[in-house]
Write a structure and sequence with these properties.
single chain; Arc Repressor Mutant, subunit A; two-stranded antiparallel ribbon; 6 helices; about 5% strand
């Protein structure tokens, strides 16, 4: 039964029980992100950040893409992507060339490609570390649900991914 405010006679919503912190998806996703970043650095070292890795993998799949499209494909905002691209260029891992229309074309350098190639075994190890406690079917289910979650909530992101 709901109560009413004495002054306005409007019903007061029934009390809602608080949700335990470990039952809140946002909290668990934040914790999962912390764990993933920690394992990334434990496995890969600190030469490359997880976001730099994602940008370089995206460039590997889309050589010559412009910076705005790269941002959309990696799910990053354009200013973050510009900063990351400048850092990667400074390390000699990508090139940026200004196109006639004023956009920047990005490509991995041979050193950038060699770096990514060298990270493949460590990335497999990282995957095993993160998912190793799950049974094979649980791994598949977890990844399928995670992809679905990201896909159905894409437009809620401050930087939605675009194909």
């Amino acid at each position: 039964m709901s109560e009413t405010h004495a002054e306005t006679a409007e019903p007061v919503a029934d009390a809602v029980a608080p949700i335990a912190i470990n039952d809140q998806p946002g909290h668990l996703i934040r914790r999962a992100h912390q764990i993933a970043v920690s394992v990334f650095h434990e496995t890969m070292g600190r030469e490359v950040t997880p976001v730099q890795y994602a940008v370089m993998r995206t460039l590997e799949s889309n050589p010559g893409v412009d910076q705005v499209t790269l941002a959309q494909q990696a799910g990053l905002d354009t200013s973050t992507t510009a900063d990351i691209a400048a850092r990667l260029e400074g390390k000699g891992w990508i090139t940026r060339q200004v196109l006639a229309r004023g956009q920047r074309e990005l490509r991995l350098t041979p050193a950038g490609q060699a770096l990514l190639d060298g990270m493949v075994p460590a990335m497999a190890q990282m995957q095993d570390t993160l998912l190793g406690a799950l049974a094979p079917q649980e791994r598949e289910d977890f990844m399928a649900l995670l992809r679905k979650f990201v896909t159905v909530n894409n437009e809620r992101s401050r930087a939605p991914m675009r194909a």
